[in-house]
C-alpha cells in the first residue's frame, strides 16, 4: 500500500515537474524560448517521420536481405 502511494506521488507530482525543468534547462542551454523549443521539436518529429516513411521503407531489413540474396544468386 505504501509503495503504491509512493509510486503515485512520484508519477503525479515529481515526473511532470522534472520534465518541465528539463525542458526549461534545455531551452536555456540552447538560448531559445520554451515555445520555440516545443515547435522546433514538433518540426523535427515531422521531418523524421517523413524520412522514415519515404526512405525508411526502402531500407527495411527484409528488403535489404532480399536484395542481397538476389545478388548472391546472380553471382553463382
SSE series: HHH
Could you give a short account of the major beta sheet?
A: none
Question: In angstroms, what separates the terminal alpha carbons?
Answer: 67 Å
Mean pLDDT: 84
* Tally of domains: 2
Quaternary structure state of the chains depicted = single chain
What percent of the residues sit in helical stretches (DSSP H or I)? over 70%
Say how many strands there are. 0
Which structural class is indicated by helix and strand composition? mainly alpha
Give the percentage of residues in beta strands. under 5%
Low-confidence stretches: none
What general form does the structure show?
elongated
What is the radius of gyration?
23 Å
Number of helices: 3
Map the helices and strands:
Elements: H1 2-30, H2 34-56, H3 61-75
In short:
The protein is mainly α and 76 residues long.
Task: Please tell me about this protein's structure.
- The chain is mostly helical and 76 residues long.
- The protein has two domains: 1-31; 34-76.
- The protein is built from three helices and no strands.
- The longest helix has 29 residues, at 2-30.
- It is elongated and about 65 Å long.
- The chain starts with a helix and ends with a helix.
Descriptors:
76 residues, mainly alpha, 2 domains, 3 helices, 88% helix, elongated
Amino acid at each position: 500500500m505504501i509503495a503504491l502511494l509512493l509510486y503515485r506521488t512520484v508519477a503525479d507530482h515529481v515526473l511532470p515537474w522534472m520534465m518541465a525543468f528539463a525542458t526549461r534547462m534545455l531551452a536555456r542551454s540552447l538560448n531559445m524560448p520554451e515555445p520555440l523549443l516545443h515547435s522546433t521539436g514538433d518540426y523535427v518529429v515531422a521531418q523524421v517521420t517523413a524520412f522514415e516513411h519515404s526512405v525508411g521503407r526502402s531500407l527495411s531489413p527484409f528488403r535489404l536481405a532480399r536484395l542481397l540474396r538476389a545478388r548472391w544468386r546472380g553471382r553463382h
